[in-house]
Amino acid sequence: MIFNSIEFVLFLPLVFLLYWFVFKNRSQQNILLLVASYFFYGWWDWRFLLLILFSSILDFVIAKKIQSNTNNKTRKVLLLSSLCFNLGVLFYFKYCNFFIESFTNAFTFFGQEITSNHIDVILPVGISFYTFQTLSYTIDVYKRKLSATKDVVSFFAFVSFFPQLVAGPIERATNLLPQFLKERKFQRTLAILGVKLIIWGMFKKIVIADNTGILVDLVYDNFETQNQLALLIAAVLFSFQIYCDFSGYSDIAIGVSRLFGFNLMTNFSFPYFSRDIAEFWRRWHISLSTWFRDYVYIPLGGSKVFKIRNVFIVFLLSGFWHGANMTFIFWGLIHAILFIPLFITGRYLKNKHSENIDKINIKPILSTILTFSMVTLAWVFFRAENITEAFLFVERIFINDFNENVLFSSNKYLLILLISVFSILTLLFIEALFYMKNKMEVTLSGKWLLFLIVMIAFFGAFKNHSEFIYFQF
Amino acid sequence: MRKFLLNIIKYSLIALLLVNAISFLSLYLLSKSEFYKPSYLVNHFNKQTKFDYIVLGSSRGLTTINTNQIDEALGTKGVNLSIDDTGLPTHSLMLTHFFENDFKTKKVILTLDSAFFKNKKMGVSDNDYRFLPFVTNDYVRSYFTEYENGMFKKYSLSGFFPFIGVSYYNLELFFPSLVTIFSPQRHNRFDDNGNYRYPDKKLNSIKKLGIENTNISNLKLLELKRMCTSNDAELIIYVAPIYNTQLNINKSLGIEVINHTSLLKSTDNFYDVIHVNKKGREIATDALMKYIN
User: Fold this and answer.
1) Are residues A400 and A415 in the same domain?
2) Is B28 on the interface with A (CB under 8 A)?
3) CA of A7 to nearest chain B CA: how many angstroms apart?
4) pLDDT on residue A70
5) Which of A19, A43, A109, B273 is most exposed, with minimal Cβ within 10 Å?
């Protein structure tokens, strides 16, 4: 089930009413959330519920054993078995074919022709998200940051919590699990903030991401014959498509959670206003970058030993997390290359606080534009089918003899382009207001919300809507 | 909680009212314009206009028959009411729309695609949103009720909540309605008599001649025939040229058929396999004239 569907419009109010009016105590509410979450996920493909169920059982049992065991060696073996199972499942479904293909290509490169068979598997939606979430639990129990829970329903509901199950934010057990274990009272202010975020997220997804997506696909599918302007527009539009698609989902997830009395972590905080790449990574997919910081970067030695190597590994893993394709790894590599100079010179925390912004100073504006340009360039690699195509795309932005611009080829595409530009400007205007006030998220007034609803109704791409991009990760 | 729910209900109602009001206005503007064929028919011609013939059909009717050419040659009055990407149910709706608005015609040339020769489960077409400005009319509403399938019936629901149709087809309805404020006489890709032709391109592919024997047995056609008869009109089925295809139609429910599938042989006359180009259109229209005269 996806957020921008009729099914969800019926599902959400029903679960909300049952949650607050029928199932009034904590354990009943957790059971309801668990059933609703499994229903939500099973709507896509019920067979993969078994994976979540098995992963939940395993981590529940292992964490309890880690907690009760005092022998460090046994604790480590238990942790490793959880890591092996969770990452093994992830590897099988997501990366197996990639490694088979890479292996075959490597042999072919050295003159040895070998044949290989691909595994015919469907990638379970959201597998990377819930795997990382369950891992955080076991690791935190191992590190004694968190006590293993005895409440099986709460734990299962934590793993499968439907608002953030398939595309995050990747919640830490230390933040989300305790919320399942305590009584929840309806908080009107929190619920109102939730509704506001849902509308804001819907605007980003339905109006911006889905409209820009039509044009981006159009150009990328025919990029060999498109002129420089078309390629440049598509590259910029993709930056907004992926941002609005992913952050839109996060906003809706956070908003929906608030309706049920849960507070999820902020996942995006105006990343395109960043003045350098370091700031961008403090504002983009925060739940993933902090996950890698806490569970990869710091255990590797953090900034104490081999710090550049550690940064490199984190960025490459971050790219690889997105999918089994060299394009994602290359995308991570570009970010690493852009980040490391700031890291070495100690300038990576320079723009940590947005209080430093001088409203009329041109320098931060230029820095923002430069950072956005670099991020956009990296997105070309993320979006392209393969590395060769990505390089060709970038090359053709600068050197190109073609005259075709598919975006200007019909009134329909021109209209979608106008809608996209207008809605992106609306987004930037609203975000700028909140960024300047050093806020973490957008909270709009009633009039603005009505304006957005009208925009969603008449500018939204309902007929040509697309799935959330991050579902594939 | 109570206050929260009341707020949600209040804002939802305001939003619903607002978007429905805008959508209603949008559909009203379109209904008073000539942008799409259904509104073009009622706003371009005076009520009770008597035509010598009308052309119904999909893109093949739209691009094959040139009523300007016929009317110039024969001194007749005709109009092409074909809509691309539509099927027999839409042609039937257009005919109902025609008669319900007090227009008269002597002949109805129905360009029938072979997909509708036989009885089959029929549904709404991609371009039926063009009838949404008239969704409050009983015959349009009952058409959507009869033919719309699936859980989410956007056309049928638009009769009660116009925003559903207008939002879903925003590029096709909302934005054109803004254009009609400044240019109500503007047509969406058809001329003053409802005609349109494809760019003058020549078909490249060569395929072997295919010969097929078939019957026309779709009972929906009898309904159309009855409608024509009760309005003193004659229904004629026209099967437009198809590149290197010969359909031999043996039976046709007693309805006259003009079978021009194999009229044009050369690729010079085709835009693609099922659509003629400018040259093919001239020849095909010329061949049709004797049936209208």
Assistant:
1) yes
2) no
3) 10
4) 87
5) A109
Instruction: Let me know if residue A376 belongs to a domain.
Output: yes
| Residue B203 and residue B166 in contact, taking contact as beta carbons nearer than 8 Å | no
- Residue A118 is a catalytic residue: no
Looking at the fold, whether A71 and A20 belong to one and the same domain comes out as yes
CB neighbours of residue B151 within 10 Å? 6
> Are A170 and A209 contained in the same domain?
no
Interface A-B: count of C-beta contacts within 8 A: 52
Query: For residue range A319-374, what is the model confidence (pLDDT) as tens digits?
Result: 988 877 889 999 999 999 999 988 888 776 766 665 555 556 788 889 999 999 99
- Residues A177 and A76 reside in one and the same domain: yes
Cα separation, B190 vs A67, whole angstroms? 76
Q: Which residues of chain A have pLDDT under 50?
A: none
Residue of A nearest to B189 (CA): A411
Neighbours of A305 (CB within 10 A): 9
Token output for B136? 């409050």
Q: Tell me if chain B has a CB within 8 Å of the CB of A415.
A: yes
Within 10 angstroms of residue B188's Cβ, the number of other Cβ atoms is 17
* Contact state of B4 with A188 under an 8 Å Cβ cutoff: yes
The answer to whether the CB of A45 falls within 8 A of the CB of A124 is yes
Looking at the complex, does the CB of residue B4 fall below 8 Å from at least one CB of chain A? yes
Say yes or no: A24 and A138 in one domain.
yes
Question: What pLDDT was estimated at residue A114?
Answer: 67
**CA end-to-end distance (rounded Å), chain B:** 74
Contact B123, B89 (CB under 8 A): yes
Q: Would the CB atoms of A463 and B7 count as touching at under 8 Å?
A: no
Structural domain contains residue A170: yes
**B5 inside 8 A of chain A by CB:** no
Instruction: Check if B29 contacts A (Cβ < 8 Å).
Output: no
Q: What 8-state DSSP symbol labels residue B174?
A: I
A363 at B interface, C-beta within 8 A: no
Q: Considering Cα of A312, then A313, then A319, then A324, what sign does the dihedral take?
A: positive
Which residues on chain B are in Cβ contact (under 8 Å) with A460?
Answer: 167, 170
Per residue in A374-429, pLDDT tens? Answer: 999 999 999 999 999 999 999 999 887 777 889 998 899 999 999 999 999 999 99
> Is B18's CB within 8 Å of A454's CB?
yes
Q: Which of A118, A285, A322, A465 is catalytic?
A: A322
B15–A458 C-beta distance less than 8 A? no
Instruction: Report the pLDDT averaged over residues B261-278.
Output: 91
How many domains, chain A?
A: 2
- The four Cα atoms A392, A398, A401, A403 give a dihedral, to 10 degrees, of 100
Q: How far is B285 from chain A (nearest CA, A)?
A: 29
> Which amino acid is located at A334 in the chain?
I
Which domain, by its residues, includes A203? 190-275+351-472
List of chain A residues whose C-beta atoms are within 8 Å of the C-beta of residue B168: 462-463
Contact between chains at A462 and B167 (C-beta distance less than 8 A): yes
A412 in the same domain as A376:
yes
Beta bridge pairs of residue B111: B238
> Same domain for A18 and A128?
yes
If asked whether residues A165 and A84 sit together in one domain, one would say yes
* pLDDT of res. A237: 97
Predicted pLDDT of residue B277? 92
Tell whether A188 lies on the interface with B, counting CB pairs under 8 A.
yes
